[in-house]
């Protein structure tokens, strides 16, 4: 695997990759965009920080790219949607600099409230002034935390340690998490109206860009303290400067900017404002954080090479890692079922339904659905399909994908059913695990019980004496060995279904001969790419 590193990344992380003989790594820092576009086609992984923009141009030029590894939390310099459409995995390091960002928030807040930077400069200049640097305490203040994720949660805990009353706003956080942190969940407007200190800890998205603007600033208390150690652009910077100039905001602390380095007149004026304490995007800039994020993304690359689950892929549905050992056999089962089921359908599917019954229905099954969808679509489209782009490809093809769950599974502790519909036909396949191995237990309305093999033959015919003998005779004549047979029928002398496992692929001429001899209404040779026979 060829990897290019385009930004400064800690050697402790890269060392994990350098010692793997499967990896060839080039560190190319300071490349101009045109230079990187000319080189990127040779690489399968790019490791970046915030200095490299992974946009459409880069992704189009990266013909062999499998993964973008962002050594940090933020991914606003990566076009994740376009990467997903290309089947490129995007991973980040969401935990590596969590503590660093939380501590920097508190450092910036305390420095701003106690005038540390200006008092330091004054004393170093030979002055002895105290009155101009009278500060404010945190104790007894109401603090509002917008975004109660990994960093915001830590900031809330530290604010409580300073004896603040803490309110929080985050539509994606459960009430229980807020309760565990000892904070109260409220609306955005309640934060703006009631808090003495407001600190932002959300990612920069279309939804959060400019989230705090003139309207929101006007709602705030006079003399409010505002902090942004998240991403530049979440707080509208011209509106923030106006609020500073009017005295609406008494103190601000800013670590991040909509343009880095900041060159606009608005940003320069904001940085120069005497009531704004600033730093040049240092939230994740500790020795520990740099090592942590480098190690985290390097481990993800090794996981990919070893075909292990990725813990921090931002564009792949994933299980709680604590459940991974339990769910891995089901990933194999749904992959096998999809590989089998799509071969029974002529043409492209129009609707695909994944149903989960039994104990498995208590869990998030979306990774199973996407895994099965990727296996299924891989049979019907020419481009590479994986868990990253499967849903996008299905949407582009106009395929409806549904997922249903029920905790009742009749005779099975867990049962997965796949229904593929298209061209007026409907194919149903159900599977279960037996001692961890996948087995097919139902095809259409027939109860079956067989283990999928690499080469199989399925046919429907009118049930009458001698049919199995005819099939066996034809197979023997052509020296095709039958490994196992599974028979199902709707009623005596009704329609029968037989599944044969064979040691080698059945030629089309033999299929036609069997079809004529049995007057089969349906016959299909199955080749299971997901199942290989033992050597």
TrEMBL record:
Domain ACT span(s) in chain numbering: 456-535
PANTHER family: FORMATE DEHYDROGENASE 1, HYDROXYPYRUVATE REDUCTASE
Top-rank taxon, per record: Bacteria
Function: Catalyzes the reversible oxidation of 3-phospho-D-glycerate to 3-phosphonooxypyruvate, the first step of the phosphorylated L-serine biosynthesis pathway. Also catalyzes the reversible oxidation of 2-hydroxyglutarate to 2-oxoglutarate.
Family: Belongs to the D-isomer specific 2-hydroxyacid dehydrogenase family.
Entry's Gene Ontology molecular function annotations: NAD binding; phosphoglycerate dehydrogenase activity
Alphabetical keyword list: Amino-acid biosynthesis, NAD, Oxidoreductase, Serine biosynthesis
InterPro entries assigned: ACT-like_dom_sf (IPR045865), ACT_dom (IPR002912), ASB_dom_sf (IPR029009), D-isomer_2_OHA_DH_cat_dom (IPR006139), D-isomer_DH_CS (IPR029753), D-isomer_DH_CS1 (IPR029752), D-isomer_DH_NAD-bd (IPR006140), NAD(P)-bd_dom_sf (IPR036291)
Reaction catalyzed: (2R)-3-phosphoglycerate + NAD(+) = 3-phosphooxypyruvate + NADH + H(+); (R)-2-hydroxyglutarate + NAD(+) = 2-oxoglutarate + NADH + H(+)
This protein's name: D-3-phosphoglycerate dehydrogenase
Annotated organism of origin: Trichlorobacter thiogenes
Pathway(s) the chain acts in: Amino-acid biosynthesis; L-serine biosynthesis; L-serine from 3-phospho-D-glycerate: step 1/3
KW Nucleotidyltransferase (keyword) present: no
Pfam families assigned: 2-Hacid_dh (PF00389), 2-Hacid_dh_C (PF02826), ACT (PF01842), PGDH_inter (PF19304)
UniProt-listed CDD domains: ACT_3PGDH-xct (cd04902), PGDH_4 (cd12173)
NCBIfam families linked to this entry: PGDH
GO biological process: L-serine biosynthetic process
E.C. designation(s): 1.1.1.95
């Amino acid at each position: 695997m060829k990897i290019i590193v385009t930004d400064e990344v800690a050697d402790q992380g890269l060392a994990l990759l350098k010692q793997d003989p499967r990896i060839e790594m080039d560190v190319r820092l300071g490349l101009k965009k045109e230079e990187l576009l000319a080189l990127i086609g040779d690489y399968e992984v790019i490791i970046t920080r915030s200095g490299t923009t992974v946009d459409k141009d880069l992704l189009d030029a990266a013909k062999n790219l499998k993964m973008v590894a962002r050594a940090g939390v933020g991914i606003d310099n990566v076009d994740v949607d376009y990467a997903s459409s290309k089947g490129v995995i995007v991973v980040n390091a969401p935990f590596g600099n969590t503590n660093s960002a939380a501590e920097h928030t508190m450092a910036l807040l305390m420095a701003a409230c106690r005038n540390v930077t200006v008092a330091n400069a004054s004393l170093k200049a030979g002055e002895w002034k105290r009155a101009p640097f009278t500060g404010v305490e945190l104790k007894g203040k109401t603090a509002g935390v917008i975004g109660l994720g990994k960093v915001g949660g830590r900031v809330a805990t530290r604010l409580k340690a300073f004896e603040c009353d803490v309110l929080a706003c985050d539509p994606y956080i459960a009430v229980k998490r807020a309760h565990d942190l000892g904070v109260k969940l409220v609306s955005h407007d309640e934060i703006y109206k009631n808090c003495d200190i407001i600190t932002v800890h959300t990612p920069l998205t279309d939804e959060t860009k400019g989230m705090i603007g003139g309207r929101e600033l006007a709602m705030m208390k006079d003399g409010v303290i505002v902090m942004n150690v998240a991403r530049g652009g979440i707080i509208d910077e011209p509106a923030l400067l106006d609020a500073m100039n009017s005295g609406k905001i008494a103190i601000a602390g800013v670590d991040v900017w909509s343009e880095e380095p900041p060159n606009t007149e608005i940003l320069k004026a904001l940085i120069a404002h005497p009531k704004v304490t600033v730093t040049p995007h240092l939230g994740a800039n500790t020795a520990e954080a740099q090592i942590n994020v480098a190690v985290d993304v390097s481990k993800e690359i090794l996981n990919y090479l070893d075909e292990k689950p990725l813990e921090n892929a931002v564009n792949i549905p994933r299980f709680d890692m604590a459940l991974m050992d339990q769910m891995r056999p089901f990933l194999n089962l749904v992959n096998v079922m999809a590989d089998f089921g799509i071969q029974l359908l002529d043409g492209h599917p129009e609707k695909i339904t994944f149903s989960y019954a039994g104990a498995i229905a208590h869990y998030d099954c979306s990774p199973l659905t996407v895994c099965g969808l990727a296996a299924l679509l891989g049979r019907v489209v020419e481009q590479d399909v994986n868990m990253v782009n499967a849903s996008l490809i299905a949407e582009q093809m106009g395929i409806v994908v549904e997922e249903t769950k029920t905790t009742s599974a009749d005779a099975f502790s867990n049962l997965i059913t796949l229904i593929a519909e298209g061209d007026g036909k409907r194919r149903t396949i159900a599977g279960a695990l037996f001692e961890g191995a996948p087995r097919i237990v139902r095809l259409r309305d027939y109860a079956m019980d067989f283990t999928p093999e690499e080469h199989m033959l399925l046919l429907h015919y009118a049930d009458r004496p001698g049919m199995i003998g005819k099939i066996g005779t034809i197979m023997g004549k052509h020296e095709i060995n039958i490994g196992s047979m599974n028979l199902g029928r709707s009623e005596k002398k009704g329609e029968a279904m037989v599944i044969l496992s064979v040691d080698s692929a059945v030629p089309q001429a033999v299929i036609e001969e069997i079809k004529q001899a049995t007057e089969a209404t349906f016959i299909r040779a199955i080749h299971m790419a997901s199942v290989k026979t033992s050597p």
